[in-house]
């Protein structure tokens, strides 16, 4: 580029010339003697070489050209975020808040200083301009770093909010922290709106995948395997292929309520499926605008508290529906009495008939299966089937159906072959005893150790697992409860049931041998 020859001008005139150009580059315009080239995340400066050396050095102080470079990048990043709607509502809200800050805080000061400099009454020096602009050095740099991180890492939704929370935590400047908190509030308002519809109606009104739960049926952009391939821990895997939990999109601000958010929507959707009721989004929005606006303005603590309340209410409502639909009172009573051996007349009969088999040494290949619904016990030892008919014994025990017939369908016991082909028992896939590889005490120890690891209270100690030596020591119950009843049988409860059964059966066997 061709520069104006400033060497013939006085030092004051040269400075005034550079000050005017400085205001231009602050606003991302090229000056006559100050030019820039933006390449990626860097800005390269070219200053008129005919200007005074001291003046050129003054331009490179922190609040002059370095600040101008930050403002140029900031404007570029704001435009990048606000013009790409695919980045989602949260990112757009943060970008709009940054644009508002730039237009209301930075630009008015620049315009004011430029007008003062043009007036005949006063001419600003480079040092004075730097003094006025220095308070914006840290805040604009921090803001630009935030936006650049969003763009570079393609952050959306909850990821943006988590990043803002981390930046606020690390920030030491009160002014900068206040500004970042405003951006956080702007993003949270958008996220809270998505959250509102999920915990209120179990619906997803999210078209850019900002929210922690995706409605794959509505978007039709992904399948669950595309998002969480091979992830068996997904909170909704056992519920519905329509929804998918993306835990990374849960903002750190809402992490204490993550499980509550997921479960609340699950409960609402299952309740709607059971009742067979459907409502459209337009119907739900009627009369909700004022409540939604109030919800969006709530603090994080209030939202977390409300989410937990909503989850509790949804779970209570669902339990009432399940109790009515599936007869859960009888279900739990039967399940409880059987697993905790509270009525042992059937157990005595089973123990007497199976004692010879259970008291012997076992191998890993032994599998004892009890088809509870039909009253048939089948034991397979080393590939040879041994059928033990307990039909008469079980039917003669006190009201067998009251103990374990949760399906409320009684079988007509004829023969093992007929019952094996029957379709009217429901227990085969729910619950069956097995012979564990480890003995009861080792299993109990491993369970406690695993629970301690979950609670981060585990201490290192050596332990050698002991394999089961006989069937009485190894008998356990495998429990498989399908959705939606799995909601009232969480894994921890099933684990406790399993342990209780093993312990009680072991004690029963030991007592029987003593007597």
From TrEMBL:
The keyword Membrane belongs to this UniProt entry's keyword annotation: yes
Predominant place of localization: cytoplasm
GO process terms (BP): cytoplasmic microtubule organization; meiotic cell cycle; microtubule nucleation; mitotic cell cycle; spindle assembly
GO cellular component entries: gamma-tubulin complex; microtubule; spindle pole
Superkingdom: Eukaryota
Residue ranges constituting the Gamma tubulin complex component protein N-terminal domain according to the UniProt record: 19-324
TM spans (from-to): 357-379
UniProt keyword terms in alphabetical order: Cytoplasm, Cytoskeleton, Membrane, Microtubule, Transmembrane, Transmembrane helix
InterPro entries (alphabetical): GCP, GCP_C, GCP_C_sf, GCP_N
PANTHER family: GAMMA TUBULIN COMPLEX PROTEIN (PTHR19302), GAMMA-TUBULIN COMPLEX COMPONENT 2 (PTHR19302:SF13)
Name under which the protein is recorded: Gamma-tubulin complex component
Record organism: Wuchereria bancrofti
């Amino acid at each position: 580029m061709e520069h104006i020859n400033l060497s013939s001008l006085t030092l004051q005139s040269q400075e005034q010339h550079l000050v005017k150009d400085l205001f231009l580059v602050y606003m991302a315009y090229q000056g006559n003697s100050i030019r820039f080239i933006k390449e990626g995340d860097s800005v390269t400066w070219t200053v008129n070489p005919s200007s005074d050396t001291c003046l050129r050095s003054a331009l490179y102080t922190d609040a002059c050209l370095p600040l101008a470079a930050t403002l140029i990048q900031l404007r570029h990043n704001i435009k990048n975020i606000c013009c790409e709607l695919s980045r989602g509502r949260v990112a757009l809200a943060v970008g709009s808040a940054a644009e508002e800050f730039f237009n209301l805080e930075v630009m008015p000061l620049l315009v004011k200083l430029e007008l003062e400099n043009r007036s005949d009454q006063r001419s600003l020096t480079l040092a004075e301009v730097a003094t006025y602009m220095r308070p914006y050095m840290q805040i604009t740099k921090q803001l630009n770093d935030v936006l650049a991180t969003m763009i570079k890492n393609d952050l959306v939704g909850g990821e943006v909010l988590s990043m803002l929370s981390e930046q606020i935590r690390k920030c030491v400047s009160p002014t900068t922290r206040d500004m970042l908190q405003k951006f956080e509030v702007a993003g949270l308002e958008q996220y809270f709106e998505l959250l509102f519809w999920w915990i209120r109606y179990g619906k997803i009104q999210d078209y850019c995948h900002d929210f922690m739960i995706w409605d794959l049926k509505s978007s039709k952009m992904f399948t669950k395997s595309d998002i969480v391939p091979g992830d068996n821990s997904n909170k909704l895997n056992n519920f519905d292929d329509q929804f998918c939990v993306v835990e990374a999109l849960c903002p750190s601000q809402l992490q204490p309520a993550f499980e509550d958010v997921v479960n609340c929507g699950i409960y609402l959707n299952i309740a709607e499926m059971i009742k067979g009721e459907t409502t459209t989004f337009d119907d739900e929005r009627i009369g909700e605008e004022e409540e939604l606006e109030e919800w969006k303005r709530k603090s994080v603590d209030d939202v977390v508290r409300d989410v937990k309340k909503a989850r509790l209410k949804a779970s209570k409502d669902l339990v009432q529906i399940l109790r009515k639909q599936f007869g859960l009172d009888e279900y739990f009573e039967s399940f409880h009495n059987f697993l905790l051996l509270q009525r042992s007349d059937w157990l005595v009969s089973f123990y007497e008939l199976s004692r010879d088999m259970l008291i012997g040494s076992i191998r890993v290949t032994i599998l004892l299966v009890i088809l509870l619904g039909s009253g048939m016990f089948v034991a397979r030892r080393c590939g040879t089937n041994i059928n033990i008919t307990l039909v008469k014994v079980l039917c003669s025990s006190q009201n067998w159906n009251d103990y374990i017939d949760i399906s409320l369908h009684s079988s007509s016991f004829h023969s093992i072959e007929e019952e094996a082909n029957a379709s009217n028992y429901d227990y085969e896939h729910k619950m069956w005893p097995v012979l564990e590889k480890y003995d009861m005490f080792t299993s109990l120890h491993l369970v406690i150790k695993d629970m301690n690891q979950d609670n981060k209270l585990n201490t290192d100690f050596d332990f050698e697992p002991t394999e089961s030596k006989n069937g009485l020591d190894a008998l356990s119950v495998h429990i498989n409860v399908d959705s939606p009843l799995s909601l009232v049988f969480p894994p921890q409860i099933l684990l406790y049931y399993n342990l209780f059964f093993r312990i009680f059966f072991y004690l029963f066997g030991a007592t029987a041998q003593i007597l």
